[in-house]
Design a protein that fits this description.
The chain has 284 residues and is of the alpha/beta class. It is 35% helix and 20% strand. The protein has a six-stranded parallel beta sheet with strand order 1-4-3-2-5-6, sandwiched between helices. Strands 7-8-9 form a three-stranded antiparallel beta sheet. Helix 3 links the parallel strand 3 (47-52) and strand 4 (86-88). Helix 6 (121-136) crosses helix 7 (148-160) and helix 9 (197-211) packs antiparallel against helix 10. It is globular and about 60 Å long. The structure holds adenosine monophosphate (AMP). The site of adenosine monophosphate has 17 residues, from helix 2 and strand 5.
């Protein structure tokens, strides 16, 4: 395994890789969720590239860019153990050496939920992912469903801009008690860690109600909201998984996502679960 710190070195390494190349973009502080993406890329591609870059463009003012966990040595060791071919770990000035005047701006798909709460976030994500795709030039790129709106934004970007890369969505890896793995879980105190399961519990409650055929989203969410404390709600919603617009009257026989964000102290947790709304049966 080699570690490329410059764009030129990454491109030189890429030239000797067997194709197809599978690519896993990350911000490091790797956990089993990231490593499941790596395992999938390894299983499906001849070579695997992982990037580690804490991208300042996708953090808003007052967010956790400065304190985001950075564990490069441990990450590189874990990736070596997992059979990765190249780690691309550029410094900030390598990625943004001239500043940036050109951005990739996702529009409607970023209007609600994460995009609404974190202005500029998806512009930062889309811009850095486009740059990484141009540098690594993978045939396939692997993203977690944990960040479902991000996955939808990247899928639309690749499709709208005709990028020659297949986007692969991968299942969310969870702790035994339901908490989705996240690098930000490292911020949680023992008490907050115990409370953090309330987000997945609220989403499970939404999924159960939708499965039962209930279709008033507002009532379903109001009931699930009761399960969140001591977490503080940011949002709970039921959305179409490609447009990311909240639905009010749940359509029949449709795949939907229950999505949520909540605070444990100052740590913001996000999660989502898929649900298939049943066909409506006529009552006589
Ligand atoms: P991040 O380092 O947070 O930018 O995440 C890098 C990639 O790992 C993204 O595609 C995430 O969606 C994915 N990821 C993060 N947490 C999980 C998880 N618990 N299960 C599966 N994928 C994840």
């Amino acid at each position: 395994m080699t570690v490329a710190r410059s764009i030129a070195d990454m491109r030189a390494q890429r030239a000797r890789l067997k194709q197809p190349i599978g690519f896993v973009p990350t911000m490091g502080a790797l956990h089993a969720g990231h490593l499941s993406l790596v395992a999938r890329a390894r299983a499906e591609c001849a070579s695997t590239v992982v990037s580690i870059f804490v991208n300042p463009l996708q953090f808003g003012r007052g967010e956790d860019f400065d304190r985001y966990p950075r564990t490069l040595d441990a990450d590189v060791a874990a990736l070596e153990n997992h059979g990765v071919d190249v780690v691309f770990a550029p410094e900030h000035d390598e990625m943004y050496r001239h500043g940036t005047v050109t951005f990739v701006e996702p529009s409607t798909i970023a209007a609600y939920l994460e995009g609404e709460r974190r202005p500029g976030h998806f512009r930062g994500v889309a811009t850095v992912v486009a740059k990484l795709f141009n540098i690594v030039a993978p045939q396939r790129a692997y993203f977690g469903r944990k960040d479902a709106q991000q996955l939808a934004v990247v899928e639309r970007m690749a499709s709208d801009l005709d990028m020659p890369v297949e986007i692969v969505g991968c299942e969310t890896v969870r702790e035994a008690d339901g908490l989705a793995l996240s690098s930000r879980n490292a911020y949680l105190s023992a008490e907050q860690r115990a409370a953090a399961t309330h987000l997945s519990a609220a989403l499970r409650a939404i999924v159960e109600e939708v499965r039962q055929g209930r279709h008033d989203a507002r009532a379903i969410i109001a009931a699930a909201r009761q399960l969140l404390p001591p977490l503080r709600e940011d949002y709970l919603a039921i959305v179409d998984p490609t447009a990311f617009v909240p639905v009010e009257d749940i359509p029949a026989a449709t795949r939907l996502l229950a999505v949520g964000a909540a605070f444990a102290g100052s740590t913001r947790l996000i999660d989502n679960m898929e649900v298939f709304a049943p066909a409506r049966t006529l009552t006589v």
